[in-house]
């Protein structure tokens, strides 16, 4: 990778509704947790984040997807070009763990076979209904590269999960041409890096975040209702 350019990696976060995907992303991007945050993601939302890992500057484009069944078919297209996927379940919601196989089936149908897969048991600050040993067995059986139990509330292992994912993506880029050619990688030289090149050797904890407006994919039912309102008004 050229020192004058910053590669962009697309990460996607999937899992059942209410496992804490949005809180997981918000904790990483803004180091914040909103108590009682219950607004369901509609379609897909994303943020951009400029990070430094092992003295390499990388821009992450993190896609937070909806867990509702009605959006599943639309979300499949967002696997295209993704370098890594975080598959979340909640350690206090047994059913979210039991549905992981459904998410894996979708992932295998839509993503590149070499995509970096990270299994995440979120809400580790709550009472456990899924044992860690069960998750580790699931990880090994289904060839996940990494497994973390995280807490979007306390921040436990959230940053670590992303840092280790970035490291694996960079490593895989150098060892697999098919992976490198499959991922959505955009190299660019941001103005900020020209003005302050000393940032390139700063630690991962010193991160600039670029939140963006949500992208909302609407179900056919919602679109039909809007169309009817326009006709009658």
TrEMBL record:
Extract the ranges annotated as region (Disordered). Answer: 182-233
> Would you say which domain of life the source belongs to?
Eukaryota
Q: Name a GO molecular-function annotation.
A: GTP binding
Its protein name is Uncharacterized protein
Which Pfam families does this entry report, sorted A to Z?
Ras
UniProt lists the family membership as follows: Belongs to the small GTPase superfamily. Rab family.
Q: Which InterPro entries match?
A: Rab_GTPases_membrane_traffic, Small_GTP-bd, Small_GTPase
Report biased composition (Polar residues) as residue ranges: 182-222
């Amino acid at each position: 990778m050229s020192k004058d350019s910053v590669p962009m990696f697309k990460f996607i976060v999937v899992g059942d509704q209410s496992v804490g995907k949005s809180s997981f992303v918000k904790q990483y991007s803004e180091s914040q947790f909103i108590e009682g945050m219950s607004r369901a993601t509609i379609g897909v939302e994303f943020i951009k984040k400029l990070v430094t890992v092992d003295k390499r500057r990388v821009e992450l484009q993190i896609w937070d997807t909806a867990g509702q069944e009605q959006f599943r078919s639309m979300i499949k297209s967002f696997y295209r070009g993704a370098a890594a996927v975080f598959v979340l379940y909640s350690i206090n919601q047994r059913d979210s763990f039991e549905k992981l196989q459904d998410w894996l089936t979708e992932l295998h149908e839509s993503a590149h076979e070499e995509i970096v897969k990270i299994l995440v048991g979120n809400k580790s600050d709550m009472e456990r209904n899924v044992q860690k040993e069960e998750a580790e067995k699931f990880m090994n059986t289904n060839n996940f590269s990494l497994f973390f139990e995280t807490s979007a509330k306390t921040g436990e292992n959230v940053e670590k999960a992303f840092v280790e994912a970035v490291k694996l993506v960079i490593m895989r880029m150098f060892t697999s041409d098919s992976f490198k050619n499959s991922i959505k990688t955009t190299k660019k030289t941001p103005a900020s890096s020209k003005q302050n090149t000393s940032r390139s050797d700063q630690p991962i904890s010193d991160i600039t975040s670029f939140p963006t407006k949500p992208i909302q994919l609407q179900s056919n039912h919602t679109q039909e209702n809007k169309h009817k309102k326009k006709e009658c008004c």
